Amino acid sequence: MPSIAPYDFEGFVEAAAFLDGEPVFALTDGTLRFPAGGERVVEAHGGGLTVARFDASSNRLLTGGEDGRVLAVSGPERVEELASIGRKWIDTLAGGPNGVVGFSTGRKAYVRQADATLRELDLPRTVEDLAFAPKGLRLAVARYDGASLFFPATDSAPVQLEWKGAHVGARFSPDGRFLVTRMQENALHGWRLEDGKHMRMTGYPAKVKSWSWSARGRFLATSGAPAAILWPFSGKDGPMNRAPLELGTRGNSMVTAVACHPDEDMVAIGYVDGMILAVRFSDAREAVLRRGGKGAINAIAWNKTGRLLAFGSDEGDAGVVDLTG
């Protein structure tokens, strides 16, 4: 069994990531913890952290808080304030190509360019999530009854993608051909962007809260069931009329977090009881990375080489798994 460096933060772990190979954990109390080699604490957000998301394109952790600030963190001594909008909660965050960052509060979305230029977008409904397309400056806004596609560098009207219900998360496929949303109900919805064709992904016993694209974008792994559900996106029609893979089935123990390996067709799966498995796509072979813990796995992330896996739970127990032993 791989070795684990355990940590106990006594607080909800919102996100885990690696910055220059070093693990960092973002807690909802507003702190960032760098525990390797002696813990260093960054007091990031007064009042509490509301959202944190790793920006792989720029190798930094983006955070937002109840203090209305948006930060970019590259290390314990490298913390940059990107924006401050007063005493308004930052609801969502997204990193995009060439250092662009999107964030929102209520019905306002903001797009910050690398040169610090800030553009406001006023929306008729509350912004539930943001996502940038992998190429070009195109922004998806998840909202009630669908999603809107903006081109923030222009004044053109947004493209409206409609589907009844509350859409609370958004992600583009790595090739930019599909937009997928998580819904308040136990389902995903998607659109093939070239023609607006709908894709329904249903059958979950619980709401999907965690998702991850595989290394080559062939699968979208999701939580929300007693197994990791991986929808196929390799063909022209994506998951339409195709059955998903079901990996790591554990009876009634729900999957709460997923993270696809950065190079291999393998997924790390975290469960409600704190267990973590690594499962291979091709033959569903499983490896136990952690047998259990105090709380449900809420955050999970690989390092660049795929040899280390950071995790954190809703009870504050966390750690780094070393797959090399």
UniProtKB/TrEMBL annotation:
Residues 262-322 form the Anaphase-promoting complex subunit 4-like WD40 domain. Coiled coil: none annotated. InterPro entries: Apc4-like_WD40_dom, Quinoprotein_ADH-like_sf, WD40/YVTN_repeat-like_dom_sf, WD40_rpt. SMART domains: WD40. It holds the Pfam family ANAPC4_WD40. It comes from the Bacteria. This is Anaphase-promoting complex subunit 4-like WD40 domain-containing protein. The lineage of its organism: Bacteria, Pseudomonadati, Pseudomonadota, Alphaproteobacteria, Hyphomicrobiales.
